[in-house]
Amino acid sequence: MLWVWVIGLALPLAVGGLAGWLTMGSMATYDALVQPPLAPPPWVFPVVWSILYLLMGIASVLVWKADVEQDEKKQALTWYGVQLAVNFVWPLLFFNAGLYGIALMWLVLLLALVAATIVAFRQINPTAAWLLVPYALWLLFATYLNAAIWLLNR
């Protein structure tokens, strides 16, 4: 079942990598924005996101391999897929389009979807749910950054 691990880890990394590639030229614009307190330097973002995408991938594989009803797995992995798609769109809204207010609302939607994914994963594999907690915490921090940037740069 090596293929499950390869796909499980590659999928979120590919989604994040594509989003990163599509927003690659926008860091100069980001650097020029008025930054809130606690704003990390730009190099932190790819490091943190790479770790979070790996944790997401591991969590999804643990759910996929769990010995539970297929319908339960399908529902949990559907939540996971939807949040991953919403995750992909956020940097395009924020970095490429500069739509900070819309990106903030999108981020709140993403947080709700990640919470739903954690709940669904917890019913199948508590470890998988715990692996998503750093992601949720980072999204809370990203919400603070997004809101502050939106307010400071109007």
- How large a portion of the residues is in β-strands, by DSSP E? under 5%
Largest sheet: none
The percent range for helix content is over 70%
Q: Which whole number gives the mean pLDDT? A: 96
Bulk shape: elongated
Tell me the number of strands: 0
Helix and strand sequence: HHHHHH
Summary tags:
single chain, 0% strand, mainly alpha, 154 residues
What does this 3D model show about the protein?
It is a single chain. The protein is mainly alpha-helical. The protein has helices spanning 2-22, 27-32, 44-65, 70-96, 100-124, 126-152. The longest helix has 27 residues, at 70-96. The protein starts with a helix and ends with a helix.
What's the topology here?
Blueprint: H1 2-22, H2 27-32, H3 44-65, H4 70-96, H5 100-124, H6 126-152
Helix pairs in contact: 1-3, 1-4, 3-6, 4-5, 5-6
In short:
With 154 residues, the chain is mainly α. It has helices at 2-22, 27-32, 44-65, 70-96, 100-124, 126-152.
